[in-house]
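Hi L.,

As promised, Xanthine phosphoribosyltransferase:
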Amino acid sequence: MKLLEDRIRRDGTVKPGNVLKVDAFLNHQCDVALFDAMGAEWARLFAGKRVDKIVTIEASGIGIACIAARHFGNVPVVFAKKTQSINLDGDQYVSSIYSFTKQREYPVIVAKRFLSTGEHVLLIDDFLANGNALHGLIDICNHAGAVIEGIGIAIEKGFQDGGRKIREAGYDIRSLAIVTAMDARTGTVDFARSEPTD
């Protein structure tokens, strides 16, 4: 998606250690018009798929998923929480994931009453690198008996193997911007010219 790629080049910052900061428009300050265009693109890419709910993970996926939901008939958005609280009651699906940015493992939790057997879901998240967060969401959906129709990713680090492994497991991933290389010294970011089809 050229609009997102251009925005990454203009307002993104490459940091040492393969870190791409996009907090000016994606995961701290949110560009709602950009989110809307992203949602429209996912609706085009997943046209013909049944989507009963969109599932994401807190916190950065929530805004993107909520705007995208408007393009899928205003379906509900369910987000996995990363901490237990008194507001989380009843039976729960729980998985565990390792966060590269936070450098620790934490649980991801969805109340069972919000994800049911046979529901068709679209997973959406802001980043895909090693795929740890997605594995947690996939695990929760599988335990719930939900049908994963596809996975929408804003930015995929194509030089890391998360996307490849999840595609090889049979999931339909549509990433709007696939980064093939980035250089902290020059600040440059390179993108794949077409989405992987395998």
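Residues 95 and 139 are 7 Å apart (CA to CA).

Thanks again for sending the construct details.

K.
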